[in-house]
Specification:
The structure is a single chain. The chain is 28% helix and 34% strand. It is globular, with a radius of gyration of 15 Å. It is built from 2 helices and 7 strands; from the N terminus they run E-E-E-E-E-E-E-H-H. Helix 1 crosses helix 2. The protein is an alpha+beta fold. It has 2 domains: 79 residues, Beta Barrel (Thrombin, subunit H), CATH 2.40.10; 44 residues, no CATH class. Strands 2-3-4-7-6-5 form a 6-stranded antiparallel beta barrel.
Amino acid sequence: MTRYDRQPVEILIEVKARDQTTHDTHNTVNLSTGGLAFRSERKLAPGDMVEIRVPLVSPPFEVKARVAWCKMREINYEIGVEFISHDDAFMAHMVEQVCLIEQYKQDILRTEGRLLSPEDAATEWISKYAARFPGSAETQ
């Protein structure tokens, strides 16, 4: 059972399982402070350790995670991982916000045709959603 509020967001991440020498690219399904879910063509077993890299942020966010569950979907697997360290969970919270802002930027371009700078997207997102974002200063 999920212990954290998950935010639906689709971003590219890189995942490396223990038996791999390189990272594979996958799309996330959702993110939370405690972990994330992503789609994969490869099945992973609960308990497997993986390295996750989020190249969207600079420098890229890198974290070790444990596979919590793996479910077969129509054409691939959906895999949920949990972060190991509380420090990683805190950093993931920051990355989660950056990813949500990037998704907002893409949504605005798609729906309104406006191309926002990263700063403008962050300003708009913060004014609209930060107070409802779990763990933000406004909700504490």
